[in-house]
Specification:
Length: 183
């Protein structure tokens, strides 16, 4: 019953968002469709899979300011790409255990521990993505909250990347629980 209520609430919120920002909602649908297709074909293309989130984040952020929309798109694109990839990397063990789609497992044929050469390729990919986000942030003319955004992009995302690549999970940090319970 509660799931039906949540679904109905989400459906209403989605419809309302469609009235306010129809382009963003259309992008959400398109991104979800592309990701489902990639998952169905068990794609090993990390760029194509990450692009689904990257384009969506880019389009959402570009709506914030017409004058700087191209810079906001670049920032959102980089952050969306990072979000998809970091989540996929963090979920490798879970996805292998449960037979779920994971672009890194498919790309590198991971069947157990992640080989060091794979870890280094992934590290390079994350660093490149973060550098693109940092570059976009530097070009962005903002009057308030710059230190907060710099902290998130330049410190927080970088630290999260380091921790995940080193196998430091939320469970291993004192006082921090996993963001969602997995069944």
């Amino acid at each position: 019953m509660m799931a039906m209520v949540r679904r109905a609430t989400l459906k209403r919120a989605f419809a309302k968002a469609g009235e306010i920002a129809p382009g963003v909602v259309a992008s959400m649908r398109e991104s979800a469709d592309k990701l489902h297709a990639l998952e169905a074909e068990k794609s090993a293309n990390t760029d194509a899979a990450a692009d689904t989130y990257a384009v969506l984040f880019g389009k959402v952020l570009q709506e914030l300011d017409v004058v700087q929309s191209h810079i906001l798109y670049d920032l959102g694109y980089s952050m969306g790409r990072w979000v998809y990839l970091i989540d996929a990397y963090d979920d490798i063990g879970h996805d292998m255990k449960h037979g779920e789609y994971n672009v890194f497992v498919n790309k590198y044929g991971i069947a157990g521990d992640i080989p060091e050469d794979v870890r280094e390729q992934v590290r390079f990919n994350f660093n490149y993505t973060l550098s693109m986000a940092m570059d976009a942030l530097k070009r962005l003319e903002i009057k308030q909250n710059r230190p907060l955004l710099e902290n998130i992009v330049c410190l927080g995302m970088k630290e999260r990347t380091k921790n995940i690549l080193e196998g430091i999970t939320d469970e291993s940090l004192p006082g921090v629980g996993r963001r969602s319970k997995r069944v």
